[in-house]
């Protein structure tokens, strides 16, 4: 199958800026799993600015393409770069069988779908030129401009710090008002009461705290009515702790200080994290045990991929990749799907309990674990009682008191019903009983028939969300 010609790539590019951006990606260092098959499909994974790499596939038959990035340009720079590398022939594409995510794309698409541009568009060719995009650009550095930019960054940083502290003062007064008015009333009207202070925190540039406040009503309404007042007190207490910790961050350890600033809304770019000295880096084979997609009040879709490391070597075994994409971009799925495994090096964000991570390098392409035998033999969750797993959660909560979600991996557990509520317990009846959210009851109901299973799920301090289970009958994955 002949590669897509450079002329075709030039024609389908949406604009010259896309070609310029694609040229920067035409190098093997940013890609993993570059492959092709006899049907004219080419694919690979490109590490972008997010925590997980983008999956890119193209057809050499009709120049169709697909990328998991949130770009609104079609084709995006990743799709163009993939075709460009293939066309130049300087970078090897390994012959391989198309993985499941590529096969799914071919099943869903129509021939010719996903293409853009017109080959015979003279005006488009006049505006877009591969040669210009490939030409090296000399970057001139103006020392005075650099100094002005640095001064502006310092000034903006100071102004934002002052704005956040002002927002924290308003948050303190708001918390005091809610307690004075009664927690029962707050639990009933949380949606109406939280929105104004969340908007005030956005104005104060404390976006992290604003998101936590915005999500507070949903966390309360997921609980039984009789538990909401107590939970409201806990949630308001966590907000107070965060506000006090932010004011006193200079006296905290560097890891906890990083947690506090991240909760306040300060972000760290991928490039900054990778170049920071002393960052926690862990390599191994990682299993995708759960993926979550949630639309936030700020109209961003939060995508989570929860990973578990196969071996028991030193370092975190659980990790979460988190990406945010605009809702306006349409339905978007996480880059990986439950059941996949991949070899990768992950870099963890500084934290008193490291959990959030990003992919530094993919060493082996993700593949789906399809057989029950491999699930039970090649990969095993730790044989740890539920009580011991909950002890780890208590340790994490002591280190980070505002912890919202923690991964729980356990062995020899059982699901039981009490009225309309399902509970996760140890199969021997010893230890805690973790209630499941009502929305999870139907999904997890098949596990009621099992005497014992090993599993993985997420605990928010009130409700447990089962995500993955290894059973005598095979693997169970939450829908």
SSE diagram, text form:
Layout: H1 6-12, H2 16-23, E1 31-36, E2 41-46, E3 54-59, E4 65-67, H3 77-88, E5 94-95, H4 100-108, H5 122-127, H6 130-134, H7 143-181, H8 183-188, H9 190-203, H10 207-221, H11 228-247, H12 254-264, H13 270-275, E6 280-295, E7 300-309, E8 318-326, E9 340-348, E10 356-368, H14 372-377, H15 386-399, E11 406-418, E12 421-426, E13 434-435, H16 441-444, E14 453-459, E15 464-471, E16 474-477
Parallel strand pairs: 1-5, 8-10
Antiparallel strand pairs: 1-2, 2-3, 3-4, 6-7, 6-9, 7-8, 9-10, 11-12, 11-14, 12-13, 14-15, 15-16
Helix pairs in contact: 2-3, 7-9, 7-11, 9-10, 10-11
How would you portray this structure in words?
The chain is of the alpha+beta class and about 475 residues long. It folds into 4 domains: about 5-135, no CATH class; about 145-265, no CATH class; about 275-370, Beta Barrel (OB fold (Dihydrolipoamide Acetyltransferase, E2P)), CATH 2.40.50; about 385-475. Helix content is about 40%, strand content about 25%. The chain is built from 16 helices and 16 strands. The chain has helices at about 5-10, 15-25, 75-90, 100-110, 120-125, 130-135, 145-180, 185-190, 190-205, 205-220, 230-245, 255-265, 270-275, 370-375, 385-400, 440-445, and strands spanning about 30-35, 40-45, 55-60, 65, 95, 280-295, 300-310, 320-325, 340-350, 355-370, 405-420, 420-425, 435, 455-460, 465-470, 475. The strands form 3 sheets. A 6-stranded antiparallel sheet has the order 13-12-11-14-15-16. Strand 14 (about 455-460) and strand 15 form a beta hairpin. The chain is globular and about 70 Å long.
